[in-house]
Design the sequence.
């Protein structure tokens, strides 16, 4: 049975600082719900949640459950995510007290199903595309509510409560919970096998996504994705390769390291020119989807044309962190071979064109990659090796297990060996720890390098670690030129 939210029932989020949980907690607090949450990590988002009226506990213990039950007549509902293990003492106390436990996906479904919503799903680009849709709607005075899996630059947050009629949500397929969503418009960016810890094969993933799509009132899909073309029926399609046979298209006229100029078509008719300030074909596709979704909601092209020129990508999507000793340090969430390939292609365009959004023109590309999950690394070892081989040098960070048990023969060293087999001339090194990785980056990089850190684990701390790094007497040897 679908969950219906009642303002009389308090809500408590275990792990409220998580990227998916914090957005929901903040929106519900702004909508007048009694919201609390626990998280032991010291994060800026907790300060923001407090400002929005969320009661924060820093300990996840049985005493927290006792505290949230004290002095109220209605038992609170406890919200968890897939990241909360059954061994969590706070969760155990909630179960012992007989409190209702629900998954964050149930809360998101309740919000999506309660108002006209745009839900963005797909293997890659869903955070960026949902960010762009929400940003364009806000810029064109449509005041959306947004629940995104990344920080939206225009909002300074991953969640936004709006008074407009629309809600924009990122629909995560990783655990299959998106089948609970009933959106007015479903957007599918692309589809290929991932999350092999949950899906045994591509057919299983397709079946889940088909179930999600059937529950959407309308469906907008990427015509350039062969899997979507073959397995999904949709009222609306977009493309960046052709204008015939699709509802929306953006055909590039000039591709540079700092953006793309493209002609926008609707039903084969040229509507106007878009100046997209995000580089790369994948970003052009994301922007096309966002503009198409807004056009289906009745937003004028003239308004969108102005708003597109000001777009920014969400946090951790080619996120420039700063310049360290004339090295440009960029953080990116890419953790699938297709994402790594797209990110490196965009970076290579910046190097080759001499144009980029960075403060200095990058001269060389140093890829710093952290494998994420043993299962994903095993499934895509050769794909990662192929994608990374286009860099000028590669540093492989310690594998981030995300709680998975090791798989024999799968490691950062195995990935480095696969990269070397694919491109023997490419300098590749493996770090045994994050501290060693920092030293490698400091010693191996050159002035003018674009240091591109990629992965879904703790690789995003590289910038801060570089700031604390000091050379030692036994500095590591430089890679070959």
Sequence:
């Amino acid at each position: 049975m679908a969950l219906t939210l009642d303002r009389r029932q308090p809500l408590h989020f275990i792990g409220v600082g998580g990227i998916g949980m914090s957005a929901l907690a903040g929106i519900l607090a702004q909508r007048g719900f009694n919201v609390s949450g626990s998280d032991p990590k010291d994060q800026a988002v907790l300060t923001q949640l407090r400002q929005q009226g969320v009661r924060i506990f820093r300990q996840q213990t049985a005493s927290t459950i006792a505290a949230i039950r004290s002095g109220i007549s209605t038992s609170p509902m406890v919200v968890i995510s897939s990241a909360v293990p059954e061994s969590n003492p706070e969760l155990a106390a909630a179960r012992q007290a007989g409190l209702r436990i629900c998954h964050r996906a149930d809360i998101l479904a309740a919000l999506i199903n309660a108002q006209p919503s745009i839900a963005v799903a797909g293997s890659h680009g869903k955070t960026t595309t949902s960010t762009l849709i929400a940003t364009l709607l806000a810029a064109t005075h449509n005041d959306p509510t947004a629940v995104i899996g990344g920080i939206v630059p225009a909002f300074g947050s991953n969640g936004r409560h709006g008074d407009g009629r629309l809600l924009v949500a990122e629909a995560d397929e990783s655990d299959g919970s998106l089948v609970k969503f009933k959106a007015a418009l479903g957007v599918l960016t692309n589809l290929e096998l991932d999350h092999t810890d949950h899906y045994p094969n591509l057919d299983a993933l397709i079946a889940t996504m088909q179930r999600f799509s059937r529950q959407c009132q309308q469906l907008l899909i990427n015509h350039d994705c062969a899997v979507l073309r073959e397995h999904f029926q949709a009222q609306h399609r977009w493309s960046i390769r052709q204008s015939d046979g699709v509802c929306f298209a953006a055909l590039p006229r000039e591709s540079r390291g700092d953006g793309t100029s493209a002609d926008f078509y609707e039903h084969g008719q040229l509507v106007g020119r878009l100046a997209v300030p995000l580089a790369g074909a994948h970003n052009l596709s994301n922007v096309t989807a966002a503009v198409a979704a807004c056009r289906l909601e009745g937003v004028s092209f003239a308004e969108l044309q102005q708003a597109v020129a000001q777009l920014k990508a969400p946090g951790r999507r080619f996120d420039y962190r700063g310049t360290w000793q004339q090295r440009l340090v960029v953080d990116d969430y890419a953790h699938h071979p297709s994402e790594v390939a797209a990110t490196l292609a965009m970076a290579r365009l910046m190097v080759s064109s001499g144009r980029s959004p960075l403060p200095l023109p990058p001269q060389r590309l140093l890829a710093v990659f952290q494998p994420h999950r043993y299962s994903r690394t095993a499934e895509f070892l050769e794909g990662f090796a192929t994608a990374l081989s286009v860099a000028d040098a590669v540093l492989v960070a310690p594998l981030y297990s995300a709680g998975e048990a090791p798989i024999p023969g799968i490691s950062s060293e195995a990935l480095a060996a696969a990269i070397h087999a694919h491109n023997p001339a490419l300098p590749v090194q493996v770090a045994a720890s994050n501290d060693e990785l920092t030293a490698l980056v400091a010693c191996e990089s050159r002035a003018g390098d674009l240091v591109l850190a990629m992965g879904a684990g703790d690789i995003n701390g590289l910038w801060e670690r570089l700031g604390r790094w000091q050379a030692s007497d036994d500095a590591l040897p430089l890679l070959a030129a």
